[in-house]
Specification:
single chain
Length: 206
């Protein structure tokens, strides 16, 4: 167990590092938006005056935006590489851990090992899911100012389900966050909480 504990200690800062880089990406998004607004204003000025210095300023602003976009790509790659390295280290550590236990187990301890092995595989699966969610966040442009949903207060990505309470504050939920294996039947209503279910029933009675 010491090997795994060491691994989790080393990776304890991983979520904070990912969030920190996502915040930096959002700040870069804001800079790009400000740059685009400046370019639109300069273009209007150039159309009216045709001054060479305005044209140079437009070109400079375009180049600035391109450089900021490159910074975003570097951050995204850094996050991916960090998460990917963590998963590879986990896989390698678990394999060594399981091999060591297999080699040292007495016959009457096999059942205990099987339970422990199952726990570690579930832990690995959970971490892999978190990494995949991070990838989906990048692909759906989480660096932009998007609305937040679900109990986890994150943007929309992956499979999601809507609460059937029309006044639900969160509205949409990630399937894995509400522990659903699949969507409900077509005519079956789904509520995110007892409160939402009760509120919907009270509204239907009125």
């Amino acid at each position: 167990m010491a090997q795994l504990e060491d691994y989790f200690d080393r990776q304890s800062d991983l979520p904070n590092e990912v969030c920190r880089n996502l915040r930096l990406m959002r700040e870069l998004d804001d800079k790009i938006m400000q740059g685009m607004q400046k370019i639109e204003l300069l273009q209007k000025q150039y159309e009216a005056n045709k001054k060479e210095n305005i044209k140079k300023e437009i070109t400079k602003q375009y180049n600035d935006n391109i450089n900021i976009a490159k910074e975003k790509l570097v951050l995204a790659d850094k996050i991916y590489q960090t998460c990917d390295k963590a998963v590879l280290e986990l896989d390698e550590g678990l394999k060594k851990f399981e091999d060591n236990i297999k080699n040292s187990l007495a016959p009457d301890h096999k059942k205990r090992f099987q339970l422990l092995s199952k726990y570690q595989k579930e832990r690995r699966k959970k971490i892999n899911q978190e990494i995949e969610q991070s990838k989906e966040i990048f692909q759906t442009g989480a660096g932009q100012s998007e609305p937040m949903y679900c109990f986890c207060v994150r943007p929309s990505f992956g499979a999601m389900i809507m609460c059937d309470n029309q006044s639900c504050k969160r509205e949409w939920f990630h399937i894995e966050c509400v522990k659903l294996d699949d969507y409900p039947e077509e005519n079956e209503k789904w509520f995110c909480s007892k409160e939402c279910r009760r509120e919907a029933k009270n509204r239907a009675k009125k």
